[in-house]
Amino acid sequence: MAFSSILYSPIHFSTLPKPQCHRYRRRPLAITAAIPPLSTAADVAAVSDTLDSTTIAVIGGGSVAALAAVLSLTDPEKRRQMQAEEVGGGDKEVVREYFNNDGFQRWRRIYGDTDDVNKVQKDIRLGHSKTVENVMKMLLDGGPLSGVTVCDAGCGTGCLSIPLAKEGAIVAASDISAAMVAEAEKQAREELLKGKDELSLGLVLPKFEVKDLESLDGKYDTVICLDVLIHYPQSKADAMIAHLASLAKNRLILSFAPKTFYYDLLKRVGELFPGPSKATRAYLHAEADVERALQKVGWRIRKRGLITTQFYFSRIVEAVPV
């Protein structure tokens, strides 16, 4: 993808029924200016304070090579290793620590309705909202969700779990962060009960649990994992995709940051500006690698989508058993 071209989102959303919150509202599709997107996860949040009053210049052909040469001299891996050592573990411990502390406060604002966000965070909010909206459209295209069991793996603050419950789905939601789970449960009660003692007929509160992806078990009609694979290198992502597929009876929906030369290069740029808070390690994944991982366990991709904004990009795939 050339940075000099204008980026469009190839997905056209239909208006969803009963739009109750920003996560689920129809938003006008905007053309993204020629500013390259960075990442779908905490690396963007970490550099957002630095980038708030500036933008990254469009990179021409000759300057790409020059920038690549400069980046080859940097060592973001050393910074990441230091983060892991400080919390006494590897990637999982860093992610848990981040999203229970600084990361929780930051992403609660991004996923929420507050105006206390900068331009980059607002753009990420829009991108994530589009991802949730598109996933809901994928699900509803298959028919009503009333009584359908859904595993929301890596639920965050409930951005997807709540719209699912509003459609009558039976939702099992989990996240590695206890802070995120507590916030998701609080928001679910506020939005679904709306001050009443009982839920409306046909609705069930999501069941929220503190669990990492490896600890998930059970069987569900549909398993959904949005923007979580960015915390897994491809070697571990293959096993995690296989595990998630083993939990699903009919459908598995994944979103991940696609690995391309330009996106990978811009991720490296972001790593040079860690910002005031520590970022988690971010991994991009080639769509072909994700597809191969699904094929190994007898699944095929039925639908594909791509969400792009200035600072958020996410590939969505819906897979079904062969």
From TrEMBL:
One Gene Ontology biological process? chlorophyll biosynthetic process
InterPro entries in the cross-refs: Mg_prot_MeTrfase, Mg_prot_MeTrfase_C, SAM-dependent_MTases_sf
Which protein are we looking at? Methyltransferase
Query: What are the record keywords, sorted?
Result: Methyltransferase, Transferase
EC number, UniProt record:
2.1.1.11
Organism lineage: Eukaryota, Viridiplantae, Streptophyta, Embryophyta, Tracheophyta
**One Pfam family this chain carries?**
Mg-por_mtran_C
Q: Where is the Magnesium-protoporphyrin IX methyltransferase C-terminal domain?
A: 225-320
> In the record, what terms sit under GO molecular function?
magnesium protoporphyrin IX methyltransferase activity
